[in-house]
Amino acid sequence: MLASEYDVIALSETWLASDIFDSELFNDRYVVYRRDRDSSFFHTKKYGGGVLLAVSKCLNSCRLTYYESKCEDVWISVDIRVNNKLEKLSICCVYIPSPVQKHVLEHFLDSANQAMETSKLTLILGDFNLGNIEWTGSPGLPLLATLPQNSLYATMLTDFITLNNLDQYNHVKNHNSKILDLVLTNIPVSCLRACDSPLSKVDAHHPPLEFQLSSCTSTLTLSSREEPRYKFYKGDYCKIIEELKVISWHDVFKQCSDVDSMVQLLYDKINNIIRKHIPKSKNSTRKYPCWYSRDLISLLREKNKYQRTCKLIHSDYKKYISSIESLNADKCNFVHFSRKKSPYFKSYVINNHAINEVDVIKDLGVHIDNKLRFHTHVDLLAKRSYKLLGFVLRNCREFRSASSKIAVFNTLVRSGLEYCSVVWNPHYEVHKKRLEAVQKRFLWHLSYQCNLVKRLPTYNSRLKYFKMTSLESRRNMMDYLFLFKLVNNSLDCPDLLKQINLNGKQSAKRIHKDKHC
User: Fold this and answer.
1) Cβ–Cβ under 8 Å, residues 69 and 17
2) Which ranges carry the Endonuclease/exonuclease/phosphatase domain (predicted)?
3) CA 306 → CA 299, 309, 316, 317, distances in Å?
4) How far, CA to CA in Å, does 361 sit from each of 109, 149, 356, 366?
5) How many CA atoms lie within 13 A of 153 on its CB side?
6) Given pLDDT bands bounded at 50, 70 and 90, which one contains residue 124?
7) Of 4, 384, 457, 462, which residue is 20 to 30 A from 132 by alpha carbon distance?
8) Backbone torsions φ then ψ of 306, nearest 5 degrees
């Protein structure tokens, strides 16, 4: 430990207790932040678990207790320099005991979501014990998660990662070829590898890691406006000469003690005269960047001219495309729709080339599987929606009006969740809940920003307060609207209309005969 030069040391499953002092673990070079098992709300065992973060005293750090959940996690803030600017980095070390329980993982992710509301730079590391997720990719780059079917915990974690725009960088597998320890961050990570000189005895299930956080480089935006320049050819040189003649340089330089101050004074006088008698050019907006040469601009203009001509001559263009375009069998696939356990498969051939069979096919943005369950479409739709929701929450953080945020959410997120819903409207509760969770998360954010979390504790109360409708109700309404248009001939689709059988039950009319006494 004395030979280590790490800035931050993170340990999970420390097995520490209150009778063990920090000075027994680290020397005075580190500030130790730890959370032992006895502070966890969900675990009754006295021993085991625990997390620890040790930060070098060269870094300014503090503990963020208001971020910490009832699980085994510890949050700290460290001052780092990014692009020559001081920023706050939130670091969390967490331990999710095995076997993973839904309420434990859900509570930690909800607490971390609240922390991400105010944290710009975040690093979450620790033992999540979710070995059923397959992480694929190249070392040094963010890894992609391949989820097993019907894995609720893996889905919860990946949705959290997507929502908060985090990346997972750990590619080091344990002796079972699984990855249990995750490195989640929105900062690029470099040089992640297995630790060559571990600080303690190595656990075969959890190989020690070491990595560096790459400093974020700022993106320099090009200014579309030029700096004004002096028009020397329009200068009033007669007045300039007159002013220069009036100046008594001997008297001016008397007050200067050295040559440098004389030179500076000379430049000040000349610059003042230039500003008075030399006009400046007006700011002009360039259509092309300044490094575009004349030849390149000429080629771009010629390309645009041909594009306009091409749009005017559609028939010749289409005839040309049809003459050179041929069906590429390598890019063709077919899907066989059946719910039988042993369906009959038939092969298809184009130009003596067999077409590949696939389980899922994409048509007009909808992923259709061979059993028409649409689970693949719902999974991809939820991931994309969480990613867009995270984008909305990050970029609309300064919005004060809830109606403005709702308008952005409806435009970017909800529109995608309702696209072609008549085709894929889910019937499984697990799919309905996963899609509804996107809007639930957004409404929680709104109530949190408006200080209404305690006043609006349920999803239905938030829907009513913000005058919104659940996604399931909106999908059902779209189904009813589609049926209404189909029956009333607003949609011309005879094949679908044939499938609809309308039976009107006639009520028996009672005939009252006049009775005469």
Assistant:
1) no
2) 5-186
3) 11, 5, 13, 12
4) 33, 18, 12, 8
5) 16
6) very high
7) 384
8) -70, -35
CA 406 from chain center: how many Å?
Answer: 18
CA dihedral 357, 362, 363, 366 (to 10 degrees): 140
**Omega cis (within 30) before 99:** yes
DSSP 513: P
Given a contact cutoff of 8 angstroms between Cβ atoms, the answer to whether 35 and 13 are in contact is: no
Q: Which residues pair with 356 in a beta bridge?
A: 333
Q: What is the mean pLDDT of residues 167-172?
A: 92
- On whether the CB atoms of residues 180 and 131 are closer than 8 A, the answer is yes
Closest CA to 199 of 20, 27, 18, 75: 27
**What contacts 310, CB < 8 A, 6 or more positions away?**
317
Alpha-helical runs (H) found in 40-119: 102-118
Q: How far, CA to CA in Å, does 511 sit from each of 277, 402, 506, 508, 514?
A: 108, 62, 15, 9, 10
Structure letter (DSSP) for residue 514: P
Can you tell me which residue has the tokens 């954010």? Answer: 445
* CA-to-CA separations, 184 to 230, 286, 298, 302, in angstroms, rounded: 52, 42, 48, 48
Taking CA atoms, 120 is separated from 166, 186, 211, 257, 486, in Å, by: 11, 9, 20, 52, 50
Q: What is the DSSP string of 287-307?
A: SS-TT--HHHHHHHHHHHHHH
More confident position, 184 or 305: 184
| 55 closest CA partner among 108, 11, 121, 85 | 11
Give the span between the Cα atoms of 469 and 460, in whole angstroms. 9
CA angle 340, 345, 351 (to 5 degrees): 150
Count H helices and E strands in the chain, helices first. Answer: 15, 19
**Cα-Cα-Cα-Cα dihedral of 415, 417, 421, 424, to 10°?**
160
Instruction: Name, in order, each residue with C-beta under 8 angstroms of 207's C-beta and a sequence gap of 6 or more.
Output: 172, 173, 174, 181, 194, 195
**Percent helix, strand and coil across the chain, each to the nearest 5:** 40, 20, 45
Secondary structure letter of residue 412 according to DSSP: I
Q: Which amino acid is at 405?
A: K
| SS3 state at 161 | helix
| 45-64 tens-digit pLDDT | 777 889 999 999 999 999 99
What digits encode the pLDDT tens for the residues 402-440?
A: 999 999 999 999 999 999 999 999 988 999 999 999 999
Helices 102-118, 429-449: crossing angle, 10 deg rounding: 40
